[in-house]
Amino acid sequence: MKPDVKICGLKTSEAVEKAVSLGATHVGFIFFEKSPRNIEPDIAGRIAEKARGRAKIVAVTVDADNDDLDDIVYLLKPDILQFHGHETPEQVLTIKALYGIPVMKVLSIREPGDLKRIDPYIGIVDRFLFDAKAPEGSELPGGNGVTFDWRLLQNLDADIDYMLSGGLHKDNVAQALKETGARGLDVSSGVESAPGVKDLARMEEFFKSVQLASERTTGSAK
Ligand SMILES: O=C(O)c1ccccc1N[C@@H]1O[C@H](COP(=O)(O)O)[C@@H](O)[C@H]1O
């Protein structure tokens, strides 16, 4: 089966259009000031219109306060809220109830014990996203282009729905799918020419690799 693909950190209409026309199921917008992919909610809201109804619009937030969340939800009207910080299960539940929007909680993974942290979120989140832990000294909790040991996901309960992220690119995505069987992939820096600059040719190559890998695992081109 072809996995969902989220292209994250979009900042231009052109990149949004390209992502959706290549078959992205999700497009992500980053609301985190220190990120080279940070975007103002009103601009994100405007360029996301290209994707509305064609792909899920994801708002990526990091320990955002209520005022910021209000702005993002009002101006972007996301289909999904992604929590990429230290949001507790209680906070996730409260925010989800407040806005009535599906939520995706990110957990950063480096060692087997990290996966135990999913337990209190089960039944609250609509999907997990497993990302690599940020390298020492990085100011970004995600978007660092680093991978983790994907084999750690092999013992995960098959009912746990998740997207895989962290350092994916055209040359490793087939292996990532083979090792994890992930039903969703999330990529940002792997389809950029410089931090925050999406490269349309790299996006195409990424989708080609995903397509080929899916054909290999299912024997079907669809
Ligand atoms: O991309 C960012 O700058 C970012 C900032 C703050 C939180 C999350 C961020 N990105 C997330 O990181 C992964 C993909 O990273 P990469 O492919 O390794 O570059 C994805 O989940 C983004 O949503």
UniProtKB/TrEMBL annotation:
Record GO biological process: L-tryptophan biosynthetic process
Family, as annotated: Belongs to the TrpF family.
Keyword Aminoacyl-tRNA synthetase: no
Taxon lineage: Bacteria, Pseudomonadati, Pseudomonadota, Alphaproteobacteria, Hyphomicrobiales
CDD domains: PRAI
Entry EC number(s): 5.3.1.24
Gene Ontology molecular-function annotations: phosphoribosylanthranilate isomerase activity
InterPro entries (UniProt xref): Aldolase_TIM, PRAI_dom, RibuloseP-bd_barrel, TrpF_fam
Protein name: N-(5'-phosphoribosyl)anthranilate isomerase
Pathway as given in its UniProt record: Amino-acid biosynthesis; L-tryptophan biosynthesis; L-tryptophan from chorismate: step 3/5
Reactions this protein catalyses: N-(5-phospho-beta-D-ribosyl)anthranilate = 1-(2-carboxyphenylamino)-1-deoxy-D-ribulose 5-phosphate
Keyword Isomerase among record annotations: yes
A Pfam family: PRAI
